[in-house]
Design a protein that fits this description.
The longest helix has 25 residues. The chain starts with 21 loop residues before the first strand and ends with a strand. Helix 8 packs parallel to helix 9. Strand 6, helix 5 and strand 7 form a beta-alpha-beta unit. It is of the alpha/beta class and 473 residues long. 33% of the residues lie in helices and 22% in strands. FE3-S4 cluster (F3S) binds next to helix 6.
Amino acid sequence: MKNRSSLPLYTPSSPSLPDEKLLYQNTDLNNNRSDDSGLSSRNVYIETYGCQMNVSDTELMSGILTQAGHRTVSHIDDADVILLNTCAIRENAEIKVINRLVHLNHRKRRKEDLIIGVCGCMAQHLRDKLLEAAPYVDLVMGPDGYRDLPMALNAVVTGDPFLSLQLDKNEDYADIAPIRKEGIRAWLTIQRGCDKMCTFCIVPFVRGRERSIPLDILTDDVKRLVDEGFKEIVLLGQTVNSYNDSQHDFGELLWRIAGVDGVERVRFTSPHPADATDSMIDALENCPEVCKQLHLPLQSGSTRVLETMRRTYTVEQYRDIVYKLRERVPQIALSTDVIVGFCGETEEDFKQTYQLMEEIRFDTAFMFKYSDREGTLANKMLSDDVPESEKARRLNEIIDLQEGISADINTASIGTTVPVLIEGNSRRNDEEYHGKSDTFKTTVFPKENARIGDIVDVTIQSSTAHTLIGEIA
Ligand code: SAH
Ligand code: F3S
């Protein structure tokens, strides 16, 4: 074990990125199920950090815990067990969790038998180093260990921390029924892990090898989701379009899922440009339930940088996919991920990224400063040589650019009519609904006689960079 002082310094005032905010606090999803396991039933509170895949994993953990007779609770004060489902993608994500743990330790001092667990990508990444930083943690569990959760909760009673950090290339949790909050949109994991090995990325090391869940199981899941009232299915995977269960590819999967009776909309995230096959584009063009929206991570507008990132495509190839998509699906909305300040990124490389974003005009973009992650290929082979102040400047420049483009694109949609799936009351006004357009834009409009779950045509009357405002046509 490494010395405590070798750990990064975590301070409560450390900055954090908005994308790493707490996404989801587990609510009482399982409605007071009683204990039928014979083991002691515990109230478990789960906090989720990071991406949608983690939200989906929290639903899976809730399913596993409930099946074993435990209960998930929506208030932390009711918890016997607090689990943090964590993210490791950038350093800020981990700092945030360490700060949270310091806070939870105060709680544990007041309630000695409180169990605190760290699950997910950061657990897998930091392993036993996590116990050095936070020795009061009882449970450290990676993304392939969730089947052991009930057993682990019993084991930690002895006082010893429980570590479950084995990656398992066969673990797909296909037999587990996740417990979701009621709603309109359900997230469905169709693939776990990643085989791509981009040099900057920790995901392959913390989530292991790519594995696809068999299509027959997924279609049965979707039938159940429709029965539960969900209308929109969002398919999840790290490189979702490389899906292959050895009998079906991603295009076939899209048609099959869209064909399930009662499915109104299908989306997916995130596809990898290198797997943007004609069968995927065909489904986007021709399958009515597949929404006209694509999140296609670019990362850099410099082919030289893309090579050092090992993204396996050039700028020209990326551009060709965009033009092909726009030719075949003219109304398609495109979003992307961009990293600035990657190892060796020159001002000229950065300018190419800026210019490509100007040229492509994405509807929205998630933009990040490069964050060196221990264990990645870049960390081993390349030098994190762009100064922090320079990374910040480059990030601010593309954020300013993108905000303007997003606002312009939304302004240009004023006067058009878009189909919106109603999700609920708007946050600001009970007389209004909010929902997403086909192109995944948040849209707000007066209720009239429409109902939650309906798809209505909304004529856009005004907009901001992130919202469309209109009324039912
Ligand atoms: N599976 C997705 C990416 C998952 S991570 C894909 O197809 O690319 C989400 C985003 O985080 C990435 O697209 C990338 O833009 C960003 N990211 C990943 N590792 C990062 C790092 N070390 N520093 C900064 N941003 C990073
Ligand atoms: Fe990460 Fe690249 Fe896979 S960004 S998740 S290694 S596609």
